[in-house]
Structures are given as structure tokens and as C-alpha cells.
Amino acid sequence: MAGALPLDPVTFEVLKNSFITSVDQMGEQVLRTCYSFVIYNRDFSSALHDANGECAAQGNQDIAVHVGTLHFTCKDVMRHFEGDMHEGDVFAINDPYAGGTHFSDVRLIRPIFADGKIIAFSQSNGHWSDVGGSVPGSFDVAAREMFREGLRITPVRLFDKNGLRKDVAHLIASNTRDPASIIGDIQAQAEATAVCEREILRLVGKYGRDTVETGLAAVQDYVERSARQRIAALPDGEWETVDFIDRDPAGGEGMIPIRIKMTIKGDRAIYDFTGSHPTIGSIYNSAFGATFSAVAAGMKTFFPDLPLNSGFYRCFEIIAPEGSIVDAKWPIAVTGFLMPFEKIMNSIYEMWSKLMPERALACAFNLEYLLTGGLDARSSDKPIFMFYDWLPGGWGGRNGKDGSNVTTACFGTGLMSQPVEGQERANPILTTECEILKDSPGPGKWRGGAGVVKTSRMLQAEKTVISYICDRERAIVWGIEGGLPSMPHGLTLKRAGSTAEERLGSIFSDVPIGEGDTFSRPTAGGGGFGDPLERDPNLVIEDIKDDYVSVERAAKDYGVVVHTIDAELCNYEVDKVATEALRAKIRSERVANVRLDPELVAQRYRSGAIDALDAIRKHAVILDWGTGALLPESTRQFREVFERRSVATWKAG
């Protein structure tokens, strides 16, 4: 870390912001020229690196999941082609075992030369909707090894001195289900790296090569210096927490723990994952690069004003046991890395909320991916279609403010919610419902944000299968400081001509689906912050008016008794006397309810006496939400953290 600023303040600020702008311009280029609908909805990111491969600038809307990995893949390309890079070359890589995320995130990297010398690299990363593998969309939850996940691209020269190597490009594209879009995205991403190159060379022309190189180092030193000063001002200490993946599909019942101990020591943070579960028999494993990115993104949330570059990465250290779910090695399957990724981010939110209570926030909903692919029978030539969808949901309640409603996941807030009109033009799928989901917010003094529910129907299609990649069906989105959880994720399927719905849950692949079949899935709200019995009844009334909370759950979760005067006119009234009595009753009984015999709770659920929200919020019991069978080990684990996050801060009745 440099001790003094090597540039005058004006030049430093100009270069700092110019570097970020050059990356933003890469994003605009991709957005306007990409072929994939997925990339168009901002599942991409970009970066500018110095000559050593260190990240010097990220864009303002680059998604969190990518940003902490791009310097790793840049360095891997540099190692493979050391001494063999030329002006106009562009290299491709998507290798998660070399610091990437998963095979769908394909990075194109261009060395930037000035006066015959490499001074920087530009990188464009886009999520391709399919990279081959055993199922459409390349998310096979049953995969234990990478060989069913799709094409692994180790560093390869894709453009040679500005000329596309068509043989390599077509080899890559031909191993996917949508080769035409892949070729288009290759061109779009390559041109994006050229946009950044032109901007950096413009700066070289204005300020000189040495000044630009100095600036690339100085912006990293600035971020490191600023972050270290802020960390040093915090108290030294240790904080620990645990979050869970729902299950190991290849193992027995019980959630999969990810344990983190954070140590603040001087001007540095250390994150120790010792005790986290070994890799599991599905794609829900994370290689080290994705784990590193999760830590960077989670911690960066508490330093929102600082630019993000490798200077920030110098301020923390990660201890990740090899072979664990947070440090998977080749050839362990890792396409579903985003499930441990978001558990890590939310765990870091929880620990930093203790350090910076003014920025505290509860758990956010979990990103989910729906992938449906087959032959589009609306056209006579029946082309392959790929419907790749994700939904927004609720973020956790905050200290003094409700959580954000219907927001893209912490995985990447730069993502856009896909417009259903565009989806319907590209795919034989009709959206019949997409709306805010009542009672999805986790109750709290400050409630979580609301999630959504989306229902779709298959139109004319053949040989179609559906896959769903999600979590938090059992490790329910949790509250803190006495707040309550949200609700379970999971998809239901209703076959054409049937009156019954089939619950498929939150993790499955390659399920056949036909014309007229309807599928529906919710996203959870955020967890609650603070005791819901302390929420202002007038705020509960407003939530009822906004359809965030039902009158019934206002009583159950908040102890607020509401009389409906005229629902059409949103006219409701709080019964203050009844509310005081109900809150006193709930306060006196709720600890015993959380510790009630779980099997008795399961029986009540199966009989219809209680619903899933009662089982979760009142009794902290986890069931198979389709059959009502008790999941005893998952319940034990869920109750353990529920006691710590919620019960421990409740006032006695």
C-alpha cells in the first residue's frame, strides 16, 4: 500500500472516475449488442485490470457475484499466455476452478497495449443461457461432477490480432443449445472490451502512459487505505454464525451448514470457514473464487461509498478448508454455487450488523432460477427454445426501516426483472400471474420486504423439460434481533386437465412438461428486524392497505387486531384494547410455542389446523411442505438458530 498519493488530487479524481466510466461503457456496449435475452437483462459484468491482472475498476451496475472473481480469471489467462499476447488478441475463459463462478459465466479478456507494452486488461463477462450439459440451461441438480454441467473453457485465444478464430468460436458455440446467440454474444463482448481499450488509450493520449499506469495503481491504494482506516476504527473481536443449504440430494435428511467466524484484528478482517460441510452430491458447491466474491460483496455492502477494486480485497483474508462446500475442487459440480454464495453474503450481513448496527439488516430472499427448454412448436421448423427466468423478492428489514420490496437478489442487484412480454415473444410460455405475494414479508418491528408469485402456462411445445434451482425451502429466510422468518420457496406444477397441484419443491431437474401444464412459484420476502410485537399498529394497517399483510396474519404475527370497515376503500381500524390483550397473550406463550413438540406441530399441519407460516413463525418447525412429514434434523438445526436470532432478544411475557 502506497503511503502518499502519487498523483495530484485533480488528476487522481479524473482518472479514478474515468476508469469506472470506461467499465460502464463496456456494459452499455454489451447491453445494446448482445443476442441473449439473459444478458440483455443485465446478467453480465465488466472490469478494468492493471498490467498485473489486479482489478482497478468495476462498473456501477456490475452484479455482485462476478466482481470478486474477475481478477482471478484475468490472471489465469495471463499465466497461460505469458509472453504470447499481441494487440487485438482476445481470450476466453469460464473455468470456475481457476477462480471463476460457473460454466455459464463466460469471460472475454483483452490486453491493452500502449507503446508496445501491456498496461492494462479489459474483461467482459456474460451469463450464456446454455453452455451444453445434460439439461437445457446447463443446471442439472443431480450432477456430482462437472461433466454433466456443460463446456469448460480453459484459457483460449478467441481473437488473434483482431481476427476472430472462427474454428474456436464455432467449436464452443456448437456445444451449446443456442449456437447463433453464442456467436452474437462473443462478438458483443469482444467489442465491449475494445470500447474500454479505446477509452484507456484516449487517457494515455491525454495524460501519458506513465500517468495512466500510476493511476491504475493509485486507485487501488486509495481504496485499500480508506477501507483499512475504517476497519481499524472498529473494535477488535470475533463474531460467528451459521447458515444452511437446504439439503444434500444425495444424502440424508438435514440441512448443510456453512460456518463462518469473522475476526477483526487491527485494520484487517479474517473470515474462517472451518467447520463448514464437505462438498455435497449436487451442483450446490462453491469453488474458492465464488466464495471469495461472496465475502467481498457481503463486506462491501457496509462500505457503499468506496469504489470496488483489488485494493478492497487486500483488506481481508479467507480461510476455506479444501474439499469443503466453500472450496470445491475439480471435478466437483459447482454450477449451483449461488446457493452457498447467498448464504455467505447474508451471514456477513448478520455479523457486520453487530459491528455497524446503524446499517443492520436481516436475511434477504434467495435467488431462484427456472429453466424450461424444448422445441417451440409455434414455428414449423420447431427451433430449440430456452426459457431462463429469475424473480425478484424481499430484502431483510433494517434498523429503523422496512426491507426493500420486490428487489433483485443480493446475488446481483444490477440484474433486471425480465419483462414477461419479451419472454412470451421468445418462448412458448404464457405468464398468467405475476404479483406481490401477501404475507411473504418476515414480520418484525421493521418487516422484511415483500416477495412475488409468478404463474406460467406452457403453450405449443414439444420434448420440453423443466428444472428449478433454488433453496430456502427448509433454511427459511430468517429475521434478526427478534424478527421472524419469511416463508418457504418451492414450485408447484398442475398438469393439463388435472385439478390437483403437485409440489416439486425447490430443487429438481429434467422434469417433463407438456402443453397446457401450469407451474407457479413464489419468492420469499426478507426476514424481519426486531420484535414484531413492537411494530407500530398504524404501520401494520398500512401494510394491510398495501396488500403486504393479511388481517389474519396481522393478528398472528404482530398481535394487532384489525377490524375491516370497508376493504374496497382500504378502510381498517385497530382495536387497541384487543391488540394489547392479544400481544400480552402472545408474549406470554411464544417461547413455549417455539419449543412445542415438533411432531405435534406436524400433526396439526397435516390436519389443516395450522399452515406453513404458523409452523415456521410460531413453532420454528420444518416439514416436507408437500406431505407434512416432520424433518427432525432440519427442525433441530432451524430451532437452534431461531433461538439465537429471535427468541434470545424477546422480552419476557
From TrEMBL:
Q: Which GO terms describe its cellular component?
A: cytosol
Entry's Pfam families? Hydantoinase_B
Which protein are we looking at?
A: Hydantoinase B/oxoprolinase family protein
Lineage here is: Bacteria, Pseudomonadati, Pseudomonadota, Alphaproteobacteria, Hyphomicrobiales
Please indicate which superkingdom the organism of origin belongs to. Bacteria
Hydantoinase B/oxoprolinase domain span: 8-532
Q: List its EC numbers.
A: 3.5.2.14
Keywords linked to the UniProt accession: Hydrolase
Q: What InterPro entries would the database entry show?
A: Hydantoinase_B, Oxoprolinase-like
Question: What is a GO molecular function of this protein?
Answer: 5-oxoprolinase (ATP-hydrolyzing) activity
Its source organism is Bradyrhizobium elkanii
Q: Does the keyword Nucleotide-binding apply?
A: no
- Is Kinase found in the keyword set? no
Q: Which GO terms describe its biological process?
A: glutathione metabolic process
